[in-house]
Specification:
This protein is an alpha/beta fold. Helix content is 40%, strand content 19%.
Length: 280
């Protein structure tokens, strides 16, 4: 297989992605990001080196990634990176890709617990995004991050090490079980909340199914956390949960029934109720 120049490969990649209905400017952007990843260059360098030749091996690797992207595989899995809260995180198919709307939990957590020293837990941490964002903003907080997946925990630990965030402890286990009687000022979680028969899962087929859906009952994990978290919060501590756009009312009812005060939901930038909080 012969190589091409940066310009010809970008044109080839963008056309392939546009034909796959990933279209327009995003197709060119994805082609640029994938070629920059293969060449280990900043994306801006592609323009200034447009006529530079690309070797056969790199060309083959780039075309393989373009084909995978055209088949719908998320860009973050192809490059192995995703930015969250300005942090550059490693990601893999073992974890959900961190999304901008999840940053709302970080914003609310920092606002509700403004102290320099506190203890917080991130349940179902995945890549570590929530725990590491909180640790980055509050260097003196002590954080516990849990996940049932050992592969996810290994990735989260690697992200913590790469970012130099040393005050996060990672523990394997399901939801509240690893907390073992400990109490926290803040508990955050982005649990699975998509019903197993929801057609939306088809578009998320590359992401770990266990992190997306709890089964037929979309509220199962949210309900478990709402009913059990108070025992692991100090008086006045906060529980923050991400959820689906239509689940806010049901989750508010669960939190009120569990004895939480100041229960309220917040909307994401698209205007959907995306997370709900309650205070012990």
């Amino acid at each position: 297989m012969t190589g091409g120049t940066i310009a010809t490969l970008l044109d080839e990649g963008a056309r392939a992605l546009a034909q796959a209905a990933l279209g327009g400017d995003p197709a060119l952007l994805d082609a640029q990001l994938l070629l920059a990843h293969v060449l280990a260059l900043p994306r801006v360098r592609l323009h200034s080196h447009a006529e530079a030749p690309v070797g056969a091996a790199q060309t083959q690797r780039y075309r393989e990634l373009i084909a995978r992207r055209a088949a719908g595989e998320p860009l973050a899995y192809l490059t192995g990176r995703r930015e969250f809260w300005s942090l550059d995180l490693m990601v893999s198919s073992a974890v959900l890709i961190p999304r901008p709307e999840t940053e709302l939990l970080v914003e609310r957590g920092l606002e509700l617990v403004p102290r320099a020293e506190a203890r917080a837990a991130d349940l179902g941490t995945g890549s570590g995004a929530l725990a590491l964002a909180l640790a980055h903003e509050r260097p003196r907080w002590r954080l516990l991050a849990t996940d049932l997946s050992e592969a996810a925990l290994a990735l989260a630990r690697a992200n913590a090490a790469a970012l130099g965030l040393t005050r996060v402890e990672f523990v394997a286990g399901s939801w509240l079980e690893p907390l073992a009687g400990a109490r926290f000022d803040l508990i955050v979680s982005n649990p699975p909340y998509v019903a197993a028969d929801d057609p939306a899962l088809a578009a998320l087929r590359f992401e770990p199914r266990a992190a997306l859906t709890p089964g037929a009952d979309a509220l199962a994990c949210l309900r478990l956390l709402a009913r059990g978290a108070a025992a692991h919060l100090v008086p006045g501590g906060w529980l923050l949960l991400e959820h689906g756009a239509t689940q806010g009312a049901a989750l508010r009812d669960e939190l009120v029934a569990a004895g939480f005060a100041h229960v309220r939901s917040h909307r994401d930038l698209a205007g959907h109720e995306r997370m709900t909080e309650g205070q012990r």
